[in-house]
């Protein structure tokens, strides 16, 4: 597998992880965002500020955890690809007289 192909796979996997994380967070905000005044133009109440602080902490934790898992998954895939390439690598040695190298 060439470097360009490997880079493309890594980019696709990264996008899938990011889309999963951001999409999940957006759905949570849609359902519970009213607790911290999400999409509201009104000033936040003290209780909403508390919820917003909690939400910011949870959101950051989810993104950090997801990014760590993404990096580990990509590393595992790269290791697997490299091991497969080593396992199935063949070297053909041909000399001028078409003799096998062990015959020389």
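^ Assign residues to that structure.
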């Amino acid at each position: 597998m060439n470097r360009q192909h490997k880079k493309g796979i890594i980019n696709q996997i990264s996008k899938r992880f990011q889309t999963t994380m951001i999409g999940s967070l957006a759905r949570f905000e849609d359902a519970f965002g009213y607790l911290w005044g999400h999409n509201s133009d009104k000033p936040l109440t003290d209780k909403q500020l508390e919820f917003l602080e909690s939400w910011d902490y949870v959101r950051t934790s989810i993104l950090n955890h997801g990014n760590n898992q993404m990096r580990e998954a990509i590393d595992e895939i790269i290791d697997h690809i490299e091991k497969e390439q080593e396992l199935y690598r063949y070297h053909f040695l041909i000399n001028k007289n078409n003799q096998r190298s062990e015959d020389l």
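Residues 3-89 form one domain.
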